[in-house]
């Protein structure tokens, strides 16, 4: 099978249907998009097989909105297809742009096939996991074992695969002074194999053959950063940068074959080194899209790593990273469940959007301004609709008060600064029109007593009372 990739089409001067869709979604000129794809600065990870199964293409790269990825997948400890499908649905519901199936347990082919069938967003994998799981060994693996699994996953419709081809024999001694050594799963597997065989990384040796498979299906390469730092102490060290330079060489090789590629990055980076890391990736990898994993900006946040990494992700996005891989609160502690997936996605939607506002992505701030207007107008329903997680916003809002009150339980009616501001500016507040300050105050008290009432209901009761007196 010989098929034409998005990159080859772009290089031939053709704007594909997928490019048109991406251009329209991003409010981007389609001819410019084509040029950026041809130059490798934008990718559309869209396996031909998945496209036929309902994939909606997205673009990642220079000038486009920052994308986020959510990792899902079963492990040997917990492997259930239904649970993984539920996670995919949550990914789509809360706005993850892609999902990676990182399953290492259960029936891997079945889980992957179900996920691809369910997902309209691109799906990524790390094929080395299946190679090791199926063969039950690291030491006895051959290059053919890798190629077979990669071919199988491409045939299934995987849109992009992490390939740990950049970690080389010469890099291994460079990790000596690290606190956490090699923390990438794929990287630690390749390190083990090379240490046992004293031979070059097989993924590096057969990289050309991997690209032939990818070209057939238009699978995008995600060059894995096997030597990413696993703690802030190890950030931006010689091992990481040496591998990054190899990833730059592999990027050029990939482009020569007309295959799309992005480059993965750390990991754990203190805030003051984030800009440097983005600049180095862009320089050594010739402008290829940068896919950062976090990064976590501190190591002391177990249970809250989605927050410490979203801080790093927002900064990386602002400095030019194109694609942010989420981290959940379970990072370093356990397999994320559906709730953790939701928490991680929202944290990263915030990071990506914050970066887009700062980067000046066209139209990015409009939603913020709309929500702010709704907030000032006390239009709660509109605020929920514009929120990244409307259900959570509504849940918190209606915990103490009904959606109709024009203040919230944070300050209460007398200290609501926005109501006071409106009054000072001579604006008629919703409250004044409908209930009146005094009544609203009583209404809040009624809430505290546990006698929950809608504003309208309260108003009509008060009116009835008033009428009775007359
Ligand atoms: S009560 Fe305070 S927090 Fe709530 S809407 Fe008014 S100003 Fe905002």
Strand element count: 10
- 3D shape: globular
Contiguous uncertain segments of 5+ residues: 433-463, 465-470
Describe the strand arrangement of the main beta sheet, using strand numbers.
3-4-5-6-7-8-9-10
Query: How many structural domains are formed by the residues?
Result: 2
Helix/strand-derived class?
Answer: alpha/beta
CATH class of the largest domain: Alpha Beta
Could you name the CATH topology of the largest domain? TIM Barrel
Pathway: Cofactor biosynthesis; thiamine diphosphate biosynthesis
Cofactor: [4Fe-4S] cluster
EC number: 4.1.99.17
Function: Catalyzes the synthesis of the hydroxymethylpyrimidine phosphate (HMP-P) moiety of thiamine from aminoimidazole ribotide (AIR) in a radical S-adenosyl-L-methionine (SAM)-dependent reaction.
